[in-house]
């Protein structure tokens, strides 16, 4: 039987961050909030692409026949279907991606990276990869970057456990291999 004293019990004390954890969290969250904008600005300036558009094209370049279901591409790029649809519409206007109904299931839409899109990705990739190296890989070092990758996979796994969709652990669809463009794009 519950008493009014039980109802007022706030439960266990939260596991507050200590000073070192707080400093690490502030640095990490600052990086999470800053890095995408910096990467996006570089791609827009040098390649007239957004970071999200680049990730869409790189994801398609990894796929068999450079084609994915929009729902799969949404998970791969960590974007909602609405955001993905807007991005793909812009990529379509530029002739870099085409959408069409899936031949086996007309209710499903698939996206394909065109030859022009692959050429655009191959043109954008060297500058983008160099920028990623300068901002992330070089400061982290080879071992630190490998550790960052492992930590990222763990964090993404915890996100899945919390009910959030995430990128496949290996970043690829099963049964596919990265294209030469994707390799040069650092994927």
Automatic annotation (TrEMBL):
Transmembrane segments: none annotated. Gene3D superfamilies: Winged helix-like DNA-binding domain superfamily/Winged helix DNA-binding domain. GO terms for molecular function: DNA-binding transcription factor activity. Residues 1-157 form the HTH marR-type domain. SMART domains: HTH_MARR. GO terms for biological process: response to stress. Signal peptide: none annotated. Residues 166-187 are annotated as: Disordered. This is Regulatory protein MarR. It comes from Pseudonocardia dioxanivorans (strain ATCC 55486 / DSM 44775 / JCM 13855 / CB1190).
